[in-house]
Amino acid sequence: MSVPRVNTPRKPAYIDLHIHSTASDGTLSPQEIIKTADKLGLRAIAITDHDTVDGSVEALQHQDSSSVEILPAIEISASFDFGAMHILGYLIRLDDPPLRQTVKVVQEARATRNLQIVKKLQDLGVDISYDEISEASGGGQIGRPHIAQVLVHKGVVQNINEAFFKLLKKGRPAYVERYRLLPVQAMQTILQAGGVPVLAHPFTLNAKTQADLDRIVAGLKQAGLKGLEAYYPGHGPVRTAQYERLAHRHGLVITGGSDFHGTVKPGVHMGFGGGDLRIPYELVEELKRSASSHTHSS
Ligand code: AMP
Ligand code: FE
Ligand code: FE
Ligand code: ZN
Predict the structure, then answer these.
(1) Based on CB atoms within 10 Å of each CB, which residue in 65, 163, 219, 237 is the most buried?
(2) From the CA of 294, how far away is ligand 1's center (Å)?
(3) Centroid of ligand 3 to alpha carbon of 292 (angstroms)
(4) Residue 57 CA from chain centroid, whole number
(5) Which of 67, 62, 35, 48 is nearest to 199 (CA)?
(6) What is the pTM of this model?
């Protein structure tokens, strides 16, 4: 008699490697994120908070509460003159001392900048205090989205986007520059912590042409880049294919994520972005191969 085949139901093997929690400017706690990911049937997630590992640390403490695999991660803002350069770091050792020291320096610079933004807003005649922003952040690291939330709440602007457009973004009256790591420093910090540095949402670099983007990516690769976030809400099939080719040309692994922030980014859903994002689990396996190859060779 043959042994009956056991048909264990297969979870859809989708993942989301770009999620923000209350440790930075997302509105769900790491535990709520795990619960949501579980409900959605996601197989793996990464909490990539801006310049802090606190979200990942907390998530990993609750790893056993679900079957969702959690990859330790961070998103570091690097200095770049033309647009926004964010470097994701996957599979990092969260307790790595140099990594912790580096993010501490960046966090202090961010705190100083936040005070300066509040001062600028006050000088512009806006009735706003640091305590209100601190409260909006829920105890995690404070970012401009929290300031934007308070401005909306007070009726200074209609919505978060308007807060950035009128006041908070570069070139606007309440913008304040802050110290950022050089791209090479961000990537080396991630590499020496055993992680894989990945260029997030490449379109925010504002490269004028494909050739420009190619040159930027080639330079980053020289400085340690290992991956490129090709799957992202709004990339669309044409852009996604361009990024896949770009990654292949430079020998980079491909990653993807929704950049879910909860209610501060309405319309962006965990796992599925605007609705049509589907990121296969195989990318996690490639990330792991990338992490182990450079950890062993260095
Ligand atoms: P910070 O890290 O404090 O400088 O704030 C940057 C963060 O603000 C980004 O990572 C986004 O999450 C968010 N952000 C930037 N531009 C906008 C915008 N136009 N509308 C909403 N959120 C934005
Ligand atoms: Fe953010
Ligand atoms: Fe980002
Ligand atoms: Zn992000």
Answers:
(1) 163
(2) 32
(3) 25
(4) 15
(5) 48
(6) 0.94
Tens digit of each residue's pLDDT (9 = 90 or more) over 274-290: 999 999 999 999 999 99
Q: What φ, ψ does residue 229 adopt, rounded to 5°?
A: -85, 95
Q: What fold does the segment set 15-103+179-297 form as a domain?
A: TIM Barrel (3.20.20)
Q: Which of 75, 106, 164 to mutate to test the pocket of ligand 1 (most atoms within 8 A of CB)?
A: 164
Length of the chain: 298
| Residue-wise pLDDT tens digits, 216-256 | 999 999 999 999 999 999 899 999 999 999 999 999 999 99
Tokens of 121: 């807003």
- What is the domain partition of the chain in residue ranges? 15-103+179-297, 108-168
Maximal C-alpha separation, the chain:
83
Pocket of ligand 1 (CB under 6 A): 25, 50, 143-145, 160-161, 164, 261
Distance (angstroms) between ligand 1 centre and the Cα of 206 equals 15
In 91-185, where do the E strands start and end? Answer: none
**DSSP-assigned states of every residue in 70-85:** EE-EEEEEE--SSS-E
Ranges 91-95, 117-121, 135-139, 212-216: which has the least confidence: 135-139
Ligand nearest the Cα atom of residue 159: 1
Kindly indicate the confidence band of residue 298, based on its pLDDT and cuts at 50, 70 and 90: very low
Among the four given CATH numbers 3.30.300, 1.10.150, 2.40.160, 2.20.25, the one describing domain 108-168: 1.10.150
